[in-house]
Amino acid sequence: MHLDRSAGRTAGRLGAAVTACVALLSAVGCSTDAGTGVRVADDAPRTHDSTAAPAQTHGRTAHARPAPSTPEPAVLARATVNMSDGQTVGVGMPISVTFPQPVPLADRKAVEDWLRVRTSSGATGAWSWVKGHNLWDGQRVDFRPSTTYWAPGTEITLRLGSHGVRHFTIGRSLVATVDAETHQMTVVTGGRTQRIPVTTGAPGTDTWNGTMVVMDKQPKVLMDSRTVGLGDEYRGDYYWAVHLTTSGTYVHQNPRADTEAGHRNVTHGCVGLATDGTAKRFYDQVRIGDVVKVVGAKKDRVAAGNGYGDWNLTWKQWLAHSAAGATTTA
Fold first, then answer.
1. How many other CB atoms are there within 10 angstroms of residue 101's CB atom?
2. Mean pLDDT for the chain overall
3. With 70 as the cut, is the pLDDT of residue 291 above it?
């Protein structure tokens, strides 16, 4: 594995260690092993939380919970969160909390009860235990709203019991839809629409289907096929790399896209953009938490824990892995 460290890191704080574009069914794209976030600060929590009127969600009533009556779980003292205090992220970014060891089933409701989420929009949402890529079951719990994505401009506060607080802001909306059959990416930003020719995974190394969220981005990544057992098939720098999955899917500049974008799928699973400035323009407008959806690829839908694939679960499926159920966040 090799990571070119000359380029530094961008916002996102996910600490991705990049390896290579791979031709494996279980890890398509530019292989990576992303971290889970940054240590929470020891800010003092508030002594009380506000309440809100019940909200209806898919036939069920969601209530803002009162202060927890159970003892605070000790595991919260070593929790990590995927966003830094004051960060502005895209509409697709879930709140993701990771623990150094699995949380037993019997303790998960108490953990959810002490993870307090408040939003300016008063959204209905829920925590759900997600099997993270390269993590054990019970090591990661994510929070997302019941509706599709956060509302732009939403202010979010996360309190990890008595051990920390984080404030986030949801920025403008950007949703990019990649159609592997038409070889086009449609980018909708604040009501403005762009169409960009792309090339996706070739037959046998197809790109994941489904909804992904930008984890981080780097201006240059060295990708080496030897690091994933593919011999000398490729080795070189790829520029303007937007990271989508822990297993290694990226949107990045690819010289082959200069002739193949809009016509054929030729990559090892990544989404390739031309070198004529197309890749850099997309890179420059994308922020952490923006949404990239892939349709028409001949591959399974990306798993919820492979990066931030949370939106690939229905609300009913999401609640099935929640110990405390839905809540309002006013």
1. 10
2. 83
3. yes
Per-residue pLDDT tens digits for 230-274: 567 778 899 999 999 998 899 999 999 999 999 999 998 999 999
Catalytic residue among 183, 252, 268, 321: 252
Chain position carrying tokens 């953009």: 273
The Cα-based distances of 251 to 26, 195, 329 in angstroms read 18, 15, 33
Let me know: does 178 contact 198? Beta carbons within 8 Å.
yes
CATH code of domain 5-11+173-310: 2.40.440.10
Nearest Cα residue to 241 out of 1, 24, 31, 26: 31
Out of 133, 243, 270, 321, pick the active-site residue.
270
Count how many residues are written for the chain: 330
Spatial separation of the C-alpha atoms in residues 134 and 227, rounded to whole Å: 17
pLDDT score at 236? 85
**Higher pLDDT, residue 142 or 14:** 142
- Which amino acid is it at 90? G
Q: Is 30 a catalytic residue?
A: no
Other Cβ atoms less than 10 A from the Cβ of 324: the count is: 17
CB 326 within 8 A of CB 57: yes
Confirm whether 48 is a catalytic residue. Answer: no
